[in-house]
Amino acid sequence: MRQSKILIPTKKEVPSDAEALSHKMMIRAGYIYQVSAGVWSYLPLAYRVIRKVENIIRDEMAKADAVEMMMPALLPADLWKESGRYESYGDNLFKLKDRRDRDFIMGPTHEETFTEVIRDSIKSYKKLPLVVYQLQDKFRDEDRPRYGILRGKEFEMLDGYSFSADQAGLDEAYDKQAQAYRNIFDRVGLNYKVILADSGTMGGKNSQEFSAPAKVGEDVIAYTDGDYAANLEKATSKFTGVQQTAEPAELTKKATPGAHSVDEAAASLGIDADQILKAMFFMAKMGEDDYQPVMVLMRGNDEVNEAKVTDALDCEELTLASEEQAVKYLGAHPGSLGPVGVGEDVKILADNYVKVLVNMACGANDDGHHYVNANIDRDFRVDQFGDFRNVKEGEIAPDGHPIKFTPGIEIGHIFKLGTHYSDKLGAKVLNENGRLVDVIMGSYGIGVTRLLSAVAEQNADENGLVWPDSIAPFDVHVIPVNAKKDDQMAMANAIDEQLTAAGYEVLVDDRKERAGVKFADSDLIGLPIRITIGKKAADGIVEVKIRKTGETIEVKQEEVANTVGILLKQLNSQNN
C-alpha cells in the first residue's frame, strides 16, 4: 500500500485539549478526527486496527460457541420502560421521538432487545443453551467525554448474551466467555487484570471486570502481589478493629459553629477524626415511587462505598439526599447530621468499624451542634452492620497480602444476570419436566474502540504509537529515504512484493518528503518493523528497525522476508 494514497493527516503539535498519551498520539499520528465532543471519526489506520481487533474477537468467540448477529441501534423505548431502565439509566440515555411521537432510544446496550428475540423465538429448553453476540456502535450521552476515544458518546462494543434453562448452562457459558476474553486481551497485547466488579445498572449480582492498568484509568483497581484483585466498589480487607474499653460517658450536646466537615468538627471538639461518626444520608429507591431514607454511619476518615450499601439494601438506586430531604427527615443540614433521636422511618446502617467505638461524637441534627459521648444502643440504634467503606492502600486483602491501588481502564465486563431481565420481560421456556421457567441469562461486553486507547496508553512513547504486531494497521513500514532516486524506489517496490508474497502487510512511504519528516511520521504511526532504504541500496543492503525497542540491524535485500518473520515472531512472544 502506498502511503501517498492513504489519508494519514499527521500533526507536529499536541492538541491543546488532549490529556491522555493515547489521545495525543492518535490525533498526531492521523488515526482519529474529532467531529464533536465525544464523537470521533476513525481514519484509515485506526479502522484497520479496529478490523483486526474484530477478527480476533470473532475467532475467539467462535471457539466459545458464540454466534454473531446484528441488532438495530435505534430501539423502541417500550422494552426499556418494561425493564425499568428507561428511567434508571439516567441522563446517559439518548432519547428521541419519531414523527408519530413514539419514544425511541439509541442503544447503549442490548439486554432487553436480545431477551425479546429469545422470548419470541425459543419455547423449549432443548434449544438452549445459546450464546449470541454483535459488534456494534453504542450511544451514551456522557456528561464529560474525555481522553479521546477512551470515553465517548459513540463507540463500538462487543455485546454478547447467553441464554440457558438452568444454572449449569449459565455457569458453562460464563466460564467459556471468561476464557475467550482472556484469549482476546492476550492476543491484542494488553497487560490486564481480572477483577471482582460491581454490576451497576446492568443488574445481576455476579460479575468480573477486565481492567488494563494505565495512568488515565478512571477506575481504581485494588490488588495485591498475590491473587486478589477487585475494583474499589467491590474490594474488601480483613477487619482489624479493636473493641474500645472506655466506660460510656454522659451524652453531651456541644456547639460547633462553622464545623461542617469531619476535620472541622474534630478540631472544634478536640478529638481524633476517627472518633467522630460520619453520617451520610441517602434516598434508596426500593421500587416504583417507593423511596427509603437511609443513614450510613462510619468513622470520620473512612469513605462510604455506595455500591456496597446498594447491595446491602437490595435497592434499585441509591442517591445522596438533598438538603431539603435532610431537613425534612432529620431537622438539620448535612454537616450536622447524626443518629441520635432518629425515628424508625429512617433506616440506619453502620460500618463494622463503628461497632467497636465507645463515646463517639456525632452530628446532633441541629445545625452547628454535635453530641459527644454517643454510644450504640444506649443513645442510638443501628439496624444493620456491614462492610460499607472503601478499602485503603496498605490494608490486608482476603489473600493475606497488602492492598495496592492502580488506575485502570475497563476493557471488558461479564455478568451473571440470572433472571433479572427474563422475569421482567417474560422470557420463559418449558424445562425438561414440562414446567415454564425463566430463562437464565449472562451478559458479556468488550469496548472495541476503547481497546485502541488502552493498548496505546500501555505501549506509546514520547515519539508516537507502538502497536503490537497482532493489531498493527500494517506489519512493516518501508521507507525509501529519497523517493526521487530510482534505485531506492525500485528496491522499495521489490521488498514490498517480497513481503506481500510472504503474507505481510506493507506500507510504503512513497511521498517526496524529507527523510526527517518520514522518520518522524513513521515513529508516530508506530508499525512494528521499519525498513529504511538509503545510501546502501546500491549494495543491496537495508536497515531494519524494531519500533518497540529502537534496535536496528542491517540486512541484505534477499534476507528481508526471513528477518521480518523472525522479528515479528519474537515480538509476538514478548507481547504474550
Automatic annotation (TrEMBL):
<keyword id="KW-0067">ATP-binding</keyword>
<dbReference type="InterPro" id="IPR036621">
    <property type="entry name" value="Anticodon-bd_dom_sf"/>
</dbReference>
<dbReference type="GO" id="GO:0004827">
    <property type="term" value="F:proline-tRNA ligase activity"/>
</dbReference>
<dbReference type="InterPro" id="IPR045864">
    <property type="entry name" value="aa-tRNA-synth_II/BPL/LPL"/>
</dbReference>
<comment type="similarity">
    <text>Belongs to the class-II aminoacyl-tRNA synthetase family. ProS type 1 subfamily.</text>
</comment>
<dbReference type="Pfam" id="PF04073">
    <property type="entry name" value="tRNA_edit"/>
</dbReference>
<dbReference type="InterPro" id="IPR004154">
    <property type="entry name" value="Anticodon-bd"/>
</dbReference>
<dbReference type="InterPro" id="IPR004500">
    <property type="entry name" value="Pro-tRNA-synth_IIa_bac-type"/>
</dbReference>
<dbReference type="InterPro" id="IPR007214">
    <property type="entry name" value="YbaK/aa-tRNA-synth-assoc-dom"/>
</dbReference>
<dbReference type="InterPro" id="IPR050062">
    <property type="entry name" value="Pro-tRNA_synthetase"/>
</dbReference>
<comment type="function">
    <text>Catalyzes the attachment of proline to tRNA(Pro) in a two-step reaction: proline is first activated by ATP to form Pro-AMP and then transferred to the acceptor end of tRNA(Pro). As ProRS can inadvertently accommodate and process non-cognate amino acids such as alanine and cysteine, to avoid such errors it has two additional distinct editing activities against alanine. One activity is designated as 'pretransfer' editing and involves the tRNA(Pro)-independent hydrolysis of activated Ala-AMP.</text>
</comment>
<feature type="domain" description="Aminoacyl-transfer RNA synthetases class-II family profile">
    <location>
        <begin position="47"/>
        <end position="468"/>
    </location>
</feature>
<dbReference type="InterPro" id="IPR002316">
    <property type="entry name" value="Pro-tRNA-ligase_IIa"/>
</dbReference>
<dbReference type="GO" id="GO:0002161">
    <property type="term" value="F:aminoacyl-tRNA deacylase activity"/>
</dbReference>
<dbReference type="InterPro" id="IPR033730">
    <property type="entry name" value="ProRS_core_prok"/>
</dbReference>
<dbReference type="GO" id="GO:0005829">
    <property type="term" value="C:cytosol"/>
</dbReference>
<dbReference type="GO" id="GO:0005524">
    <property type="term" value="F:ATP binding"/>
</dbReference>
<keyword id="KW-0547">Nucleotide-binding</keyword>
<comment type="subunit">
    <text>Homodimer.</text>
</comment>
<protein>
    <recommendedName>
        <fullName>Proline--tRNA ligase</fullName>
        <ecNumber>6.1.1.15</ecNumber>
    </recommendedName>
</protein>
<dbReference type="InterPro" id="IPR044140">
    <property type="entry name" value="ProRS_anticodon_short"/>
</dbReference>
<keyword id="KW-0436">Ligase</keyword>
<dbReference type="InterPro" id="IPR036754">
    <property type="entry name" value="YbaK/aa-tRNA-synt-asso_dom_sf"/>
</dbReference>
<dbReference type="Pfam" id="PF00587">
    <property type="entry name" value="tRNA-synt_2b"/>
</dbReference>
<dbReference type="GO" id="GO:0140096">
    <property type="term" value="F:catalytic activity, acting on a protein"/>
</dbReference>
<keyword id="KW-0963">Cytoplasm</keyword>
<dbReference type="GO" id="GO:0016740">
    <property type="term" value="F:transferase activity"/>
</dbReference>
<dbReference type="InterPro" id="IPR006195">
    <property type="entry name" value="aa-tRNA-synth_II"/>
</dbReference>
<keyword id="KW-0648">Protein biosynthesis</keyword>
<dbReference type="GO" id="GO:0006433">
    <property type="term" value="P:prolyl-tRNA aminoacylation"/>
</dbReference>
<dbReference type="InterPro" id="IPR002314">
    <property type="entry name" value="aa-tRNA-synt_IIb"/>
</dbReference>
<keyword id="KW-0030">Aminoacyl-tRNA synthetase</keyword>
<dbReference type="InterPro" id="IPR023717">
    <property type="entry name" value="Pro-tRNA-Synthase_IIa_type1"/>
</dbReference>
<dbReference type="Pfam" id="PF03129">
    <property type="entry name" value="HGTP_anticodon"/>
</dbReference>
